[in-house]
């Protein structure tokens, strides 16, 4: 399964920005039909996004459709679901029923259009007070396994701007006001067996030092990647959510030493002055697997 670090947004109705987004080394590009598109432009934007997915490109293409509660979501999905789309980003999810309904519609569109059932990813964004309050029930929608082992929902995303506005928060650059919400998204994801979630976009484009701190906190806090709103953010995001050379080398030492110890009947050893047992060895194997996934994506990015 691909390792997702960077998801770059591009307005679905701006062809130049869409074209440019697909040339950046993001792991995925999200063509936006929601906030970036005025109401009057939505029908034309759907056609443009569907046309963009039909073209060859360097990375995976997603569409952010409008929220399930709006009158636009159904037409968005009908327009964009097809062989060229990798996934759908679904904003303002507030219940498992939202996901079941969207899953049902995507499934039928897949069947109708010759796409392998269950192959289109679905990423719910948790960005409302109700969605956060019900997050444990939202992720229960993943309990179904109807697609020969494929999971429709593999990860959540966090939308900090909408969430803060609705709750009445005024986050500073280091965003301590959002710490609890982020921790809840990570915990709910892992408890449901999902991959690490995607963190919210960073809107302070001139605050590079604060962005670097935010990326470090996010990765250490359990997020797997980040939503990006500008191409210049992609290199920093890709680097931040990838294991460093030192981390990979240390993980390799841990795995080699632990495998040797386990073969001799031991399951607790020291490596570089740290106690290593099964959980630590498991984490080290995950670091090596992540590094292999990233190397594989460099060879075959699409």
Please provide a written account of the structure.
- The protein folds into two domains: 6-240, Phosphoenolpyruvate-binding domains (TIM Barrel), CATH 3.20.20.60; 245-299.
- The longest helix has 22 residues, at 278-299.
- The protein is an alpha/beta fold and 302 residues long.
- It is 45% helix and 13% strand.
- The chain has twelve helices and ten strands.
Q: Under the CATH scheme, which class of the largest domain?
A: Alpha Beta
Order of helices and strands: EHEHEHEHEHHEHHEHEHHEEH
> Into which percentage range does the β-strand content fall?
5-15%
- Under the CATH scheme, the architecture of the largest domain is Alpha-Beta Barrel
Distance between the first and last residues' Cα: 13 Å
User: How many independent structural domains?
Assistant: 2
Please state how the strands of the largest beta sheet are arranged side by side.
6-5-4-3-2-1-8-7
Question: Measured on Cα atoms, how large is the radius of gyration?
Answer: 20 Å
Features:
alpha/beta; 2 domains; globular; 12 helices; two-stranded antiparallel sheet; 302 residues; TIM Barrel
